[in-house]
Amino acid sequence: MSPNSKLTSTIAIVGAGDVGATIAYSLIMNPVAGEILLVDPKEEVRDAQVQDLSDATFHGNTSTRVRAGTHKEAGQCDIIVMTAGAKQKKGESRTDLVGRNKAILSSAIDDMKPFASDTILLLVANPVDVLTYFAQQFSDLPKNQVIGSGTFLDSARLRGILAAKAEVAASSIEAFVCGEHGESQFVAWSKASIGGVPLELALPSNIKLDKNAVAEETKNKANNIIENKGVTNYGIGGVAASICKSIMFDEKNILPVSHWQEDLGVCLSIPAVVGRKGVVRTVEMGFSGEEKEALQKSAKTLKEVLEA
Ligand SMILES: NC(=O)C1=CN([C@@H]2O[C@H](COP(=O)(O)OP(=O)(O)OC[C@H]3O[C@@H](n4cnc5c(N)ncnc54)[C@H](O)[C@@H]3O)[C@@H](O)[C@H]2O)C=CC1
Ligand SMILES: CC(=O)C(=O)O
């Protein structure tokens, strides 16, 4: 898509803080929507973000207009990206945010109703898998239309780490983190490949891969960033914009997003086909026995948070 082609779609970003604004910026740099609405009860911050982001549209993207919007208007957009909520302070886990962010989600959804029938609600606020589940309950939208960014960000981090070790482009690596966007996540090592060749075979012979260390480094990356700058915003900015693009242009990319798992009774990430209808289908991964166990464990952890 040329940056100046006519774009007619609308994306609302509910929560115009660090993450919301960075997602908007990514959507300006990689044009997806004709209009981006920022929604936030902190009006001064929201309006300042609108002005700053509007300045960014002068450089190449004249198709996207950024403006302040209401929750009601957000409910009518093609995609609603939900970033409203508290973020972790140093030492806090994502699940520590559940009480505060469930209340914010519930009131924001009430304010947005009634939703356009084909809107896609994309959850980003944490704990993202738990909030995706609650958003499905509160919104009454079809479950395939309510998805979370899930382990897409963790998978991007994993690919970056593997790419540096293997000395190849991250785009040539196929590797997924699955399960919870949190402590119980796991790497689907049995499906990892480089250039279509199984990881073990494709790695240079002088590289000894410590899988546990790589999985831990991947999992801990958010905490390490938050420890030093207080927020993670650029990674999720790119990831959320990619999901929006796959939805808006009906690209049907396979993305590890959080979505409803009928057999597990929770929302968590398994790679899925993502298009204009949201999750089109979950990919049958053929997990190894160990990975199946890790998936069950992740679902159990999430159920405990849902039922607490
Ligand atoms: N899923 C992921 O991979 C990632 C998730 N996050 C999560 O994103 C969330 C947002 O993080 P930041 O932007 O850094 O926080 P922030 O504090 O900078 O911004 C949050 C914004 O939400 C707004 N807000 C509160 N209630 C609202 C409502 N009812 N309607 C609209 N806006 C409302 C606040 O006024 C604030 O401006 C956090 O929960 C954080 O943990 C952050 C990075 C990655
Ligand atoms: C904050 C968060 O969830 C992340 O950066 O992974």
TrEMBL record:
SUPFAM superfamilies hit by this protein: LDH C-terminal domain-like, NAD(P)-binding Rossmann-fold domains
InterPro entries named in the record: L-lactate/malate_DH, L-lactate_DH, Lactate/malate_DH_C, Lactate/malate_DH_N, Lactate_DH/Glyco_Ohase_4_C, NAD(P)-bd_dom_sf
Catalytic center residues: H181
PANTHER family: L-2-HYDROXYCARBOXYLATE DEHYDROGENASE (NAD(P)(+)) (PTHR43128), L-LACTATE DEHYDROGENASE (PTHR43128:SF16)
Residue span(s) of domain Lactate/malate dehydrogenase C-terminal: 151-307
UniProt name for this protein: L-lactate dehydrogenase
Pathway linked to the protein: Fermentation; pyruvate fermentation to lactate; (S)-lactate from pyruvate: step 1/1
Domain Lactate/malate dehydrogenase N-terminal, residue spans: 11-148
GO molecular function, one term: L-lactate dehydrogenase (NAD+) activity
Any one of the GO BP annotations: lactate metabolic process
Enzyme Commission (EC) number: 1.1.1.27
GO cellular component, one term: cytoplasm
Domain of life, source organism: Eukaryota
